[in-house]
Amino acid sequence: MASDNPLVDLWIDHLGLAVRDVAPVVAALRNDGLKVSDPVELRGTDGPMGQVSAHCVFENFYLEISAPIKGHDNHLWPILEDGACLGIIVMQCDDATARQAALTDAGIACGPVNDASRTVALKSGDTTARFRWFPIEGLVDRAIIAEVEHRNPETVFASELGNHANGARRVKRIAMGSDYSPLARLAVGRPDAAPEIKLDQDLPPRGCTIVTDTGTDLLKLTLEACG
Fold this sequence. Notes:
- This protein has about 230 residues and is α+β, with helices and mostly antiparallel strands.
- The protein has a domain at about 15-165: 2,3-Dihydroxybiphenyl 1,2-Dioxygenase, domain 1 (Roll).
- The chain has helices at about 25-30, 75-80, 95-105, 155, 220-225, and strands at about 10-20, 40-45, 45-60, 60-70, 85-90, 115-120, 125-135, 145-150, 170-175, 195-200, 210.
- The strands form 2 sheets. Strands 1-4-3-2-6-7-8-5 form an 8-stranded mixed β-barrel. Strands 10-9-11 form a 3-stranded mixed β-sheet.
- Strand 3 (about 45-60) and strand 4 form a beta hairpin.
- Helix 1 (about 25-30) packs across helix 5 (about 220-225).
């Protein structure tokens, strides 16, 4: 692992913007020529999670835009106390149960493995994306850190979902500020197709950029839409 960039081998599956209202963010992305799903409610093993999410999908990554539902207990409320922000950072793994056990053995505090799902609208009709995931505690303050195992990645990353009018197909690179350096403990080797990850000391400590192959910074675009 390169000492000047400890995040180089981090395999980020998706990042999530925590907002109070997904509508203006979805509109901003669409106005920029990006395809974004209509918001849907997430479900866990115990039923609805009190959260709606929309997704902007690329070949190698997706941006999640999530908001808690008023009147429901949800893990996004504390994160939103200081306003909209990058609130969800999820790494991909092949086997959630095995990965959780390995991280626990390495002294990293992990929560239990959970099942979750959401509806994905495809041309052939609505289908269900299924996941196994677990939270990771104590690495980055005011952010949900997790790892996910896709049960049907062909649904999550269906090519039609990433057919963006502006020509973007991939997320080229992600740069993160110094507050995110502890994520290096989760690095296991980044596949060639995954976004390049960089720790950038020139960014604010909680700063982040998500740049597509057409040069759009997704996070800047979405945070500006939040006012």
